[in-house]
């Protein structure tokens, strides 16, 4: 074995990729040691995914070289990469949901007896791989019945079944509960023992510092540095990623909470298990955070306030008057707006323009005489959304799909502001958005509160809640475990409350 | 509490098997009104009328499972019927399309008809998978075009547009007779349908092609990154459908005893309706052979049973329309979750 193959399992050297008018990657290098977790970090647009697309042959490099175990390789597609031991666990899991776990695992290379498929061998081999990874899923279960975390495990098992040497994980924990994250980390430890390397792409600093051995940081298509995770701190990583000292991750708070506008008393969801007996108040110009573990029914609570889910008992009072938000239409009429958690599935119309995405919740306002929509009014409002939210877009006609996550989110928030809401419900407003854009969203939330809107914000990121909100309602297993003042609380207190029930 | 879960299980079973329940209820309803309906003769009639439709529906179903559709099925059946009939006219028949054609062994015309529709099916597959024309449009074009081809073949000198009849003995026996069992005769048609169903069942469930078919319909992207050759698999599935239409077309010609350019008209819609009622998902990835067969039988029982009761054929249409909508509405409940 040559010395180079002993040092690095995968080397990407001086990769350059140009698109018409832009240099997407300039002399980027990534060197992964065998049996290690190598975090790849950078803001959205830093070039992480472009680099991975070069690795998997989705883009061809203009310059540079990829060495796998010391030998130069050029993959033409992800299938080829897979067969050579380089695989990817996608952020959006690519599975055939209508089919069984083992059908998915062996898709494209079913074991056969003659012309027929050898079901028994498929079943046994699946169990064998699951056993080595400590995964407990029946290979015959339909994928559609699996949780996100289980689907991810199946993807990892698939990578292992291809004898992968390098597995790329793109935001693997974005929809996992803490317990599931722990299981994932256990699996990663097992993979390391098998001498498999992980390229770990994530925005979550705490996680990266916990799981990774080395960290490579990119910024604006350029390679910044590779360091051992032990030498790094969250602040240091952020500084390297954004190239400026972001000791201020949150804007200073300037909003002043006023009188109570919304009073929720003993709210209980109709379909249980869900939340029950939740009470809280929201003031004018206040930002109320909702903390809790995944599964503590925070989203359900927001959706019920917005009329998407039915309520069994309890009251919602707006300015002292009891209201019933039985449907989103009613909620909107009462001055509520909801920015949903799953931006891609329930937030945006990906193929339609920024303009369409801006005005769609407010169409009634653009009616001229009769039934027609006034293009001029709609266009003015779109312009307002783009300007006020500082949306970076080439034009109103650009499909929203081609904007970054942060800019998409700004359009969605802008869309709801057009309806002149009094109460803005935000569900994980910064999920999947890079650090710089997060700051802008925080600023926006603060500004809105300053203008007197009441804001309820669900978030799984503790620092975010502590940095942005005035008070925090902590949910635990469907119940309100307590309401704390952000200025005087601590992460420890919130964690304790989250685990109360 | 125990009772609740038991009820829930019963309810779930009911929702999951709604088509079979509908099938039973239909039969039960007809039998209550007219007990005579329960007879071996009626059963044999219904099954033999369903046979060629099951074969068509299985072809269409495979395509539906890939998240495609095939509007050209009926017209292909017509083309195969006309081609096979023209090659199987009795030598002493006065209006032969090919007066000098000797009596061919049965399998040659059937094979020719199947090759013709098989090739057209493959063409559908190429248009859909290589040129990325949406299946609805591709097969709509094929449907219209094939009707033209069939009509040109059918309506020409010396005899012009008249039904191609006078089929020879071996052909009519092949499609109209059966195996005697006691006082009854089990039509060959039923046997053909059973054999085709078994072959298709094996392909769908036991071969790589079948699993790929479900994968392509369920998530084409996943199939592609797993190394499935989507183009090739799609072409094969459309080709198999074409072959099935060809076979079914010859059976139709033999069963009726003649063929015209309108044979098979609208069969594709019947087939799609039967598939959908039988639980095949139009969005792809879901469908079973037994479901498709049940779907076809439901429609055939409506046709036959209501006619047996003397119900106006116009009312039969209304019932059929309702069944399609109600069955699918129930089916959607499987997927819809109450919030």
From TrEMBL, chain A:
Keyword ATP-binding appears in the UniProt entry: yes
SUPFAM superfamilies for the chain: P-loop containing nucleoside triphosphate hydrolases
Catalytic activity: D-galactose(out) + ATP + H2O = D-galactose(in) + ADP + phosphate + H(+)
Cross-referenced Gene3D superfamilies: P-loop containing nucleotide triphosphate hydrolases
Superkingdom in the source lineage: Bacteria
Record EC number: 7.5.2.11
Domain ABC transporter: 10-245, 255-500
Subcellular location: Cell inner membrane; Cell membrane
InterPro entries, per the entry: AAA+_ATPase (IPR003593), ABC_carbohydrate_import_ATPase (IPR050107), ABC_transporter-like_ATP-bd (IPR003439), ABC_transporter-like_CS (IPR017871), P-loop_NTPase (IPR027417)
Topology with respect to the bilayer: Peripheral membrane protein
Record Pfam families: ABC_tran (PF00005)
Keyword entries, A-Z: ATP-binding, Cell membrane, Membrane, Nucleotide-binding, Repeat, Sugar transport, Translocase, Transport
Enzyme class: translocase
One example GO MF annotation: ATP hydrolysis activity
A GO BP entry: monosaccharide transmembrane transport
Gene Ontology cellular component annotations, sorted alphabetically: plasma membrane
Function, in words: Part of an ABC transporter complex involved in carbohydrate import. Could be involved in ribose, galactose and/or methyl galactoside import. Responsible for energy coupling to the transport system.
Family label: Belongs to the ABC transporter superfamily.
Protein name: Ribose/galactose/methyl galactoside import ATP-binding protein
Organism: Anoxybacteroides voinovskiense
UniProtKB/TrEMBL annotation, chain B:
Species annotation: Anoxybacteroides voinovskiense
Compartments in which it is found: Cell membrane
UniProt xrefs under Pfam families: BPD_transp_2
Single GO term (MF): transmembrane transporter activity
Name of the molecule in the record: Methyl-galactoside transport system permease protein
Keywords, in A-Z order: Cell membrane, Membrane, Transmembrane, Transmembrane helix
Keyword Cell membrane attributed: yes
UniProt superkingdom: Bacteria
GO cellular component, one term: plasma membrane
InterPro entries, per the entry: ABC_transp_permease
Spans traversing the lipid bilayer: 18-38, 50-67, 73-94, 106-127, 133-154, 186-204, 234-251, 272-302, 314-332
Entry keyword annotation includes Thylakoid: no
Membrane topology: Multi-pass membrane protein
């Amino acid at each position: 074995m040559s010395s180079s193959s002993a040092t690095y399992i995968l080397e990407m050297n001086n990769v350059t990729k140009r698109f018409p008018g832009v240099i997407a990657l300039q002399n980027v290098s990534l060197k992964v040691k065998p049996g290690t977790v190598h975090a790849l970090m950078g803001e959205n647009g830093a070039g992480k995914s472009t680099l991975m697309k070069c690795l998997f042959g989705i883009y061809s490099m203009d310059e540079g070289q990829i060495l796998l175990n010391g030998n130069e390789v050029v993959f033409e597609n992800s299938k080829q990469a897979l067969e050579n031991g380089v695989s990817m666990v996608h952020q959006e899991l690519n599975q055939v949901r209508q089919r069984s776990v083992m059908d998915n695992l062996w898709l494209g290379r079913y074991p056969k007896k003659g012309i027929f498929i050898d079901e028994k061998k498929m079943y046994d081999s699946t169990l064998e791989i699951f056993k080595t990874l400590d995964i407990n899923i029946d290979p015959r279960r339909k994928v559609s019945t699996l949780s996100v975390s289980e689907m991810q495990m199946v993807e990892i098992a698939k990578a292992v079944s291809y004898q992968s040497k390098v597995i790329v994980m793109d935001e693997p924990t974005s929809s996992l509960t803490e317990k599931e994250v722990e299981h994932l980390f256990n699996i990663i430890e097992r993979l390391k023992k098998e001498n498999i390397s992980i390229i770990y792409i994530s925005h979550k600093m705490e996680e990266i510092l916990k799981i990774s051995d080395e960290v490579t940081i990119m910024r604006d298509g350029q390679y910044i540095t590779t360091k051992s995770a032990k030498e790094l701190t969250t602040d240091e990583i952020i500084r390297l990623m954004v190239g400026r000292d972001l000791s201020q991750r949150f804007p200073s708070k300037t909003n002043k909470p006023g009188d109570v506008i919304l009073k929720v008393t003993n709210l209980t969801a109709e379909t249980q298990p869900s939340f029950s007996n939740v009470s809280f108040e929201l003031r004018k110009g206040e930002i109320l955070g909702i903390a809790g573990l995944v599964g503590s029914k925070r989203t359900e609570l927001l959706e019920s306030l917005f009329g998407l889910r039915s309520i069994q008992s309890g009251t919602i009072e707006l300015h002292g008057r009891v209201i019933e938000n039985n449907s989103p239409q009613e909620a909107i009429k009462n001055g509520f707006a909801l920015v949903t958690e799953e931006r891609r599935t329930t937030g945006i119309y990906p193929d339609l323009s920024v303009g369409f995405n801006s005005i769609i919740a407010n169409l009634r306002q653009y009616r001229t005489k009769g039934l027609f929509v006034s293009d001029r009014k709609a266009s003015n409002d779109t312009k307002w959304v783009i300007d006020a939210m500082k949306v970076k877009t080439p034009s109103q006609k650009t499909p929203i799909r081609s904007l970054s996550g942060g800019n998409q989110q700004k359009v969605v928030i802008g869309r709801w502001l057009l309806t002149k809401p009094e109460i803005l419900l935000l569900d994980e407003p910064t999920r999947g958005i890079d650090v710089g854009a997060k700051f802008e969203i925080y600023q926006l939330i603060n500004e809105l509160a300053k203008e007197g809107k009441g804001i309820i914000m669900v978030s799984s990121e503790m620092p975010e809640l502590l940095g942005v909100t005035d008070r925090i309602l902590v949910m635990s297993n469907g119940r309100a475990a307590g309401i704390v003042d952000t200025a005087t609380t601590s992460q420890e207190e919130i964690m304790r409350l989250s685990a109360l029930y | 509490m125990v009772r609740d879960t038991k009820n829930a299980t019963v309810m779930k079973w009911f929702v999951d098997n709604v088509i079979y329940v509908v099938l039973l209820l239909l039969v039960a309803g007809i039998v209550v009104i007219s007990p005579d309906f329960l007879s071996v003769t009626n059963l044999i009639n219904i099954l033999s009328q369903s046979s060629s439709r099951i074969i068509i529906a299985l072809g269409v179903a495979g395509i539906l499972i890939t998240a495609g559709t095939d509007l050209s099925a009926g017209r292909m059946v017509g083309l195969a019927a006309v081609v096979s009939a023209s090659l199987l006219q009795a030598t002493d028949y006065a209006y032969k399309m090919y007066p000098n054609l000797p009596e061919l062994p049965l399998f040659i015309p059937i094979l020719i008809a199947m090759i013709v529709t098989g090739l057209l099916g493959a063409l559908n597959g190429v248009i859909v998978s290589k040129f990325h024309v949406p299946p609805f449009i591709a097969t709509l074009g094929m449907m219209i075009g094939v009707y033209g081809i069939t009509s040109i073949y059918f309506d020409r000198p010396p005899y012009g547009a008249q039904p191609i009849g006078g089929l020879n003995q071996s052909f009519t026996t092949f499609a109209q007779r059966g195996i005697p069992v006691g006082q009854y005769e089990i039509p060959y048609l039923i046997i053909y349908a059973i054999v085709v169903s078994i072959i298709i069942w094996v392909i769908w469930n036991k071969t790589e092609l079948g699993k790929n078919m479900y994968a392509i319909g369920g998530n084409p992207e996943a199939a592609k990154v797993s190394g499935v050759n989507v183009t090739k698999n799609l072409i094969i599935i459309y080709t198999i459908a074409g072959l099935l239409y060809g076979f079914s077309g010859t059976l139709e010609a033999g069963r009726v005893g003649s063929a015209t350019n309108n044979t098979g008209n609208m069969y594709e819609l019947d087939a799609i309706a039967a598939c959908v009622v039988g639980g095949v998902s139009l969005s792809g990835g879901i469908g079973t052979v037994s479901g498709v067969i049940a779907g076809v039988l439901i429609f055939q029982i409506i046709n036959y049973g209501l006619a047996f009761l003397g119900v106006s054929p116009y009312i039969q249409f209304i019932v059929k329309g309702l069944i399609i909508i109600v069955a699918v509405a129930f089916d959607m409940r499987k997927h819809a979750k109450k919030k």
